[in-house]
Every structure is written in structure tokens, then in C-alpha cells.
TrEMBL record:
Location in or out of the cell: Cytoplasm
Catalytic activity, reaction form: D-fructose 6-phosphate + L-glutamine = D-glucosamine 6-phosphate + L-glutamate
Superkingdom of this protein's organism: Bacteria
EC category: transferase
Name of the molecule in the record: Glutamine--fructose-6-phosphate aminotransferase [isomerizing]
Active-site residues, record numbering mapped to chain: K359 (for fru-6p isomerization activity)
Organism: Parasphingopyxis lamellibrachiae
Subunit structure, as described in the record: Homodimer.
A single BP term in Gene Ontology: amino sugar biosynthetic process
Cellular component terms (Gene Ontology): cytosol
Keywords linked to the UniProt accession: Aminotransferase, Cytoplasm, Glutamine amidotransferase, Repeat, Transferase
């Protein structure tokens, strides 16, 4: 079933351009140059607040969704990990949509949070990969991802498919709220349609990334930095690395470095910096350079422009194609996943079934 691949995780990383294209097919109408969601029994324009609830990797899609929805639709979003949401007695209101994200559709905490919202009369939607799952049956609006079965415990293709659906959802909401012109929507549809090709280009760096994995595999701790939507990407990078390679890793918002984490920096702590060129680039680079001045070994993931401006003094760079911010996380996820994968292979861990973890967490 793994075909030519050594592990399910590797197969699932490489499947991403295809399954993201499949997922986008149900949310894009290229002829009308519009984004489309399935029919729903309520009007999205009626919601003034959105709560997004998920666990683990799915919760990073929630965080990226917050940036997109607030930026494009100007609707305030709160994000919670499901285990916190349930027990903090959240304020639930009628003008609120509760959006749940889950690959399995069976995660106990997320399912309980969903049931809690339904009991309170809150409208619910779910970005879910398993169409027959408990959550898929419970939500008022099912937004399916079409990633196919994900076997590796580390979530990869479900993550990028969830991002594709989140981008479509944010765009649709922005239109419903009157915040998006037809020209802007056309642009977004065009960029989203280009995502699978850009993801293929990112996969082309597999060998370079395998080549640098040995250095990272020797580290005891690894830090990931990003700003804006790349902050949740940094969290995802760190989670992926710790779960399959057992190396301690943390993701930080770059601006937070000087508030504590920079104390950890020395030449034994590699720093993975996720920074496409753009308005936030210089700020992230200045945080990166502060760390470099303290001996940090930096791997910079950026585009040609970013690498041209800040690649000097790094131990390695990984060059991504230049892409629209709405598809950047789909593309930048790939080097982040490949790095974790190759480090785990270098360490000889059980990539598909890491110790102490289950694919689907059905108990609290
Ligand atoms: O099936 P779900 O999306 O609800 O699962 C949530 C988390 O358990 C999951 O993303 C977990 O963090 C992965 N092992 C991460 O790779």
C-alpha cells in the first residue's frame, strides 16, 4: 500500500498536490471564478463571531484561519484547543458560528466541544476528513476535506487539505460580508488553483532536505520561528519534529524571542525560520539575526527574494516558489514536514507509529 515509499508518512506527504487539488475541486468554480461552499441552512453573513475549536495539528489550521478570516472578512475569531474550550465555560451567543476541525472526526475533546455547542443552540460547522465520523454526522454544515485515509500518526495531507478548505471558507465569508470584490475573489480563485503546482515545486526539495537532516538529528533542542500565519506554521514544525523524531522542539512567534526564548540560543540549538518575503519579512529577519549573533545555526525557509536578502550566514536555505499569502501555508507545510520526516529517518525512529501516540485520540 505504501507503493515506492518507505513509510506512509512519506507517501502522504507526496500525495498532497493531488489530494489538495481534489479538495479544491469541490470548493472552486473556476468558470464563474468563485469559491463555493455546500448548501447550508443559514446565512453566513448573519454571524458576527466565529469560534474555531480543534486539537493538535488541526488547531494550527484554526490559528491560520483566524488570521485569514479576520483579515479578509473582518469577523472576529477566537481559537481554542478543544480540551480548554469545554471547561472554560465559553460565552456562547446566537450570532456565533462554532467551527470544528478534525481529520478523524472522532477526537474526544473536539467531539465533546461540538456537542456542548449544539446543546447551547449554537450553529456548528466542521472541516472533517472522515465523512462517516461522529463529528461529520453532528455538524450543521459539513465542509469535507478529500485527503483520503491518512495512516501515518503524524498528520500531513489532512493538514494541507484543511488549509485549502479554510481558505475557501474565509473567502466565502468575506464575500457574504461584502468585504470582497468580484476581482479580488477571481484573484483568490486563481491563486488557490495554482497551489498544487507550487506544492509540487516544494516537493522537489526532498533531497536537499534529506541532506541537511543529519545535522538537525544531532540536536537536543530545535526552535522554529515565524510571524503572522507562519507562527502557527512554526508550531506545526515543532510538533511534527517532536512527535516523530523525539527531539525537543518549540515554535515561537518571532517577536517573542527577546521575551525569553533567546536565552536558550547557542550553537547547539538549530533555529528553523519560516519567512516568505513580504511585509513581515524584515522583522522576522531581525529576530533571526539576533539569534545568529548568539551562535544559532539557522535554516531559512523562504523564497528567492527572501533568501537573497537574508540567506547569508545560515547553515542552509530551502527555497520555496513565490506565492500568494493565502496559499503560502500549503506550500511551506511541505519543507516543514519533510524536515521532520528525514530527521526521524536519520534517527531511526518508528515514523508511522511513534511511541505513546495513537492516530485518533478518542479518550480525554
Ligand atoms: O483527528 P484530529 O484532526 O481531530 O486529530 C487531532 C490531533 O490529535 C492530531 O492532529 C495530532 O496532533 C497529530 N498526531 C499531529 O500530527
Amino acid at each position: 500500500e505504501k507503493g515506492n515509499h518507505a513509510h506512509f508518512m512519506q507517501k502522504e506527504i507526496f500525495e498532497q498536490p493531488i489530494v489538495v487539488a481534489q479538495t479544491l475541486q469541490s470548493y472552486l468554480r473556476p468558470l464563474e471564478e468563485q469559491v463555493a461552499l455546500p448548501d447550508m441552512a443559514f446565512d453566513l453573513a448573519g454571524f458576527d463571531r466565529i469560534s474555531i475549536v480543534a486539537c493538535g495539528t488541526s488547531s494550527y489550521v484554526a490559528m491560520i484561519g483566524k488570521y485569514w478570516i479576520e483579515q479578509f472578512a473582518r469577523v472576529p475569531v477566537e481559537v481554542d484547543v478543544a480540551s480548554e474550550f469545554r471547561y472554560r465555560d465559553p460565552v456562547l451567543t446566537e450570532n456565533q458560528l462554532a467551527l470544528f476541525i478534525s481529520q478523524s472526526g472522532e477526537t474526544a475533546d473536539t467531539l465533546a466541544a461540538l456537542k456542548h455547542c449544539k446543546r447551547a443552540g449554537v450553529k456548528t460547522a466542521g472541516i472533517i476528513n472522515v465523512p462517516t465520523s461522529s463529528m461529520a454526522r453532528e455538524v450543521d454544515l459539513l465542509l469535507s476535506t478529500h485527503a483520503g485515509p491518512e495512516i501515518g500518526v503524524a498528520s500531513t495531507k489532512a493538514f494541507t487539505c484543511q488549509l485549502a478548505v479554510m481558505a475557501a471558507f474565509a473567502t466565502n465569508l468575506a464575500r457574504a460580508k461584502g468585504k470582497l470584490s468580484p476581482e479580488e475573489e477571481r484573484e483568490i480563485v486563481r491563486h488557490l488553483s495554482e497551489a498544487p503546482e507550487a506544492m509540487n515545486a516544494a516537493l522537489g526539495h526532498d533531497e536537499d532536505i534529506a541532506g541537511m537532516a543529519g545535522t538537525i538529528a544531532e540536536a537536543r533542542d530545535v526552535l522554529y520561528l515565524g510571524r503572522g500565519i507562519d507562527y502557527p506554521m512554526a508550531l506545526e514544525g515543532a510538533l511534527k519534529l517532536k512527535e516523530i523524531s523525539y527531539i525537543h522542539a518549540e515554535g515561537y512567534a518571532s517577536g517573542e524571542m527577546k521575551h525569553g526564548p533567546i536565552a536558550l540560543i547557542d550553537d547547539a540549538v538549530p533555529l528553523i525560520v519560516i519567512a516568505p518575503s513580504g511585509p513581515l519579512f524584515e522583522k522576522t529577519v531581525s529576530n533571526m539575526q539576533e539569534a545568529q549573533a548568539r551562535g544559532a545555526k539557522v535554516v531559512l525557509i523562504s523564497d528567492a527574494e527572501g533568501i537573497g536578502r537574508a540567506g547569508q550566514g545560515t547553515i542552509a536555505t530551502i527555497e520555496m516558489p513565490k506565492v500568494h499569502p493565502l496559499i503560502a501555508p500549503l506550500v511551506y507545510a511541505i519543507p516543514v514536514q519533510l524536515l521532520a520526516y528525514h530527521v526521524a529517518v536519520a534517527k531511526g525512529t518508528d515514523v508511522d507509529q511513534p511511541r505513546n501516540l495513537a492516530k485518533s485520540v478518542t479518550v480525554e
